[in-house]
């Protein structure tokens, strides 16, 4: 496998924030989001199905809803991360309950790490992310240089 090089990209001041919560964590995410409503309102919100509907109702903010996580919503969020259409992930996951879609959850966490986006896995880390001075600023981050990766692979195939 080819080594992946990295390039510097820029996260804009207005972030695209994905919000995901397992069933037993939805109430905590809603309480947290209500406390953080003013900060969240300055950004674009995307969420998996039920979580997104609940957030939209409770916050009275626009939330773009994917389908439910177990039906592919986690994968939809992951695809957007890989396409650089999600800038942050807040995922209140339940470490005590086995999830039938656990491979999707692991894939989502992995793709967030690969694309170097800020990731909060619980209320404390989400508070830290949203209180960061970087939240409302454009700032650089390192991301995989996918174009160079493709070029290197193509060069290996050409005689």
Structure summarized in a few sentences:
This protein is α/β, with parallel strands linked by helices. It has helices at residues 26-35, 37-40, 49-59, 73-82, 102-114, 123-131, 146-157; strands at residues 6-11, 16-21, 44-47, 63-65, 88-92, 119-120, 139-144.
What does this structure look like?
It catalyses: dihydroxyacetone phosphate = methylglyoxal + phosphate. Substrate binds at residues 22, 26, 48-51, 68-69, 101. It holds the Pfam family MGS. One of its GO terms (molecular function) is methylglyoxal synthase activity. This protein is of the alpha/beta class and 159 residues long. It has a single domain, classed as Rossmann fold (3-Layer(aba) Sandwich). The chain has helices at residues 26-35, 37-40, 49-59, 73-82, 102-114, 123-131, 146-157, and strands at residues 6-11, 16-21, 44-47, 63-65, 88-92, 119-120, 139-144. α4 runs parallel beside α5. β5 (88-92), α5 (102-114) and β6 (119-120) form a beta-alpha-beta unit. It is globular, with a radius of gyration of 17 Å. The chain starts with 5 loop residues before the first strand and ends with a helix.
CATH superfamily: Methylglyoxal synthase-like domain
CATH architecture level-2 label: 3-Layer(aba) Sandwich
CATH topology, which one?
Rossmann fold
* Major sheet characteristics: 5 strands, parallel
Domains counted in the coordinates: how many?
A: 1
Shape call: globular
Mean pLDDT: 91
Number of helices: 7
Q: How much of the sequence is in beta strands? A: 15-25%
Count of extended strands: 7
Oligomer: single chain
- Which structural class matches the secondary elements? alpha/beta
Terminal CA distance reads: 19 Å
CATH class value: Alpha Beta
């Amino acid at each position: 496998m080819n080594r992946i090089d990295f390039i510097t990209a820029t996260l804009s001041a207005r972030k695209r924030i994905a919000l995901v919560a397992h069933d037993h964590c939805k109430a905590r995410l809603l309480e947290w989001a209500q406390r953080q409503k003013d900060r969240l309102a300055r950004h674009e919100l995307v969420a998996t199905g039920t979580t997104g509907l609940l957030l939209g109702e409770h916050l009275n903010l626009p939330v773009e809803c994917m389908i439910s996580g177990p039906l592919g919503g986690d994968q939809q969020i992951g695809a957007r991360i890989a396409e650089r259409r999600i800038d942050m992930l807040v995922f209140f996951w339940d470490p005590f309950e086995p999830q039938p879609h656990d491979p999707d959850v692991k894939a989502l966490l992995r793709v967030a790490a690969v694309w170097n986006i800020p990731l909060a896995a619980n209320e404390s880390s989400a508070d830290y992310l949203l209180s960061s001075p970087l939240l409302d600023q454009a700032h650089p981050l390192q991301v995989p240089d996918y174009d160079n990766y493709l070029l290197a692979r193509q060069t290996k195939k050409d005689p």
